[in-house]
Design brief:
mainly alpha, two-stranded antiparallel sheet
């Protein structure tokens, strides 16, 4: 398995205000839930890889475990624990390197 130091680092966004933070958090959460939900629709027999090991076929017990893991992840993501009125407007993010 590859060392964690070799894994690509996520982009860091500069946050200048609480409003910008809430918008970024809502967008991040919405995107994560969307990706996890999409993965639930991958058909049996699809080959998957994490980029570190040999590819695996989604079938049988492996598929059942994959779907269970996605259900747990979606349950853990749940709803954000606060309410905020957020209107999403495409604004360029400042990327910090």
């Amino acid at each position: 398995m590859t060392d964690k130091a070799d894994m690509p680092k996520p982009e860091t966004v500069s946050i200048d205000s609480l409003d910008q933070f809430v918008r970024a958090l809502h967008q991040w959460h919405r995107n994560k839930v969307k990706v996890l939900s999409h993965l639930m629709t991958i058909p049996e027999g699809t080959e998957v890889t994490d980029g570190l090991e040999n590819p695996k076929l989604l079938q049988g017990e492996f598929l059942e475990g994959f779907i269970l893991g996605l259900k747990v992840a979606l349950h853990e993501m749940g709803e954000l624990p606060f309410e905020a009125e957020v209107e999403f407007v495409d604004q360029p993010a400042k990327i910090v390197h």
